[in-house]
Write a structure and sequence with these properties.
With 217 residues, this protein is α/β, with parallel strands linked by helices. It contains ten helices and nine strands. Strands 6-7-8-3-9 form a five-stranded parallel sheet, sandwiched between helices. The chain has a four-stranded antiparallel sheet with strand order 2-1-4-5. The radius of gyration is 17 Å and the shape is globular. The two termini are 21 Å apart. This is ABC transporter ATP-binding protein. Belongs to the ABC transporter superfamily. Keywords: ATP-binding, Nucleotide-binding, Transport. Residues 2-217 form the ABC transporter domain.
């Protein structure tokens, strides 16, 4: 279970973009966080994924308080989360072919021997054909790159996925395919999901429950 208790967070001292917000995602549950652009939901998602340290408040994972964020968090905590961002091109190294992009977390955690098997397993699961895996980000479409970013998020078999506007910049068919890939992964692993977005219809169809930002804030 992931618990965010009274989180206040921002990027400039004394100017928080999230104020005293609490949210819970139970084990295996899918929760949609619905809100307009600029409300702070992406900042809260980054806190939830241990990518941004809050100014105050407490984050608990399975009842244990988290005390460190980003590279200072223990590896077992960092690898428990998989994150997919809205803008794939800002979260992908333009120098890497898609195979290496997907494999980044494996190599970073000393599991390079697993690369071939995991890429071969994940590529078809997210809809990437073998010819795309040798291409670099500038040689593929936004949708194809986001598929690779989803595979990267899944490669360490996380038990909690954070999808921050994952489908916002994609066409309807690609968005549906990525949601289906996430749900297939969740069905096989029991992973929980925090899906952040502004599309009420998508979140209410996708998630077990949807939380409105104006209720949290």
């Amino acid at each position: 279970m992931l618990e965010l208790r009274s989180i206040t967070a921002g990027y400039t001292r004394n100017a928080p973009v999230v104020r005293d917000v609490s949210l819970t995602v139970a084990a295996g549950e899918s929760v949609g966080l619905l809100g307009p652009s600029g409300c702070g939901k992406s900042t809260l998602a980054r806190v939830a994924a241990l990518l941004h340290r809050p100014d105050s408040g407490t984050l608990l994972l399975d009842g244990e308080p988290v005390r460190h964020w980003r590279h200072r968090a223990p590896r077992a905590l960092r690898t428990a989360f998989g994150v997919v961002f809205q803008q794939a091109r800002l979260s992908a190294d333009p120098r890497l072919p898609l195979t290496d992009l997907i494999a980044e977390p494996l190599r970073a955690t000393g599991r390079g021997r697993e690369v071939a098997d995991r890429v071969a397993e994940l590529a078809p699961a997210v809809g990437l054909t073998p010819d795309l895996l040798t291409r670099r980000p500038y040689e593929v479409s936004d949708g194809q790159l986001q598929r690779a970013c989803l595979a990267r998020a899944l490669v360490l078999r996380p038990r909690l996925l954070v999808c921050d506007e994952m489908t916002a910049m994609l066409d309807a068919s690609t968005a549906a395919a990525l949601v289906a890939a996430v749900e297939s992964y969740r069905a096989s692993t029991g992973a929980a999901l925090l899906a952040v977005g502004h599309d009420r219809t998508l979140l209410e169809r996708w998630c077990d429950r949807t939380v409105h930002w104006d209720i949290l804030a």
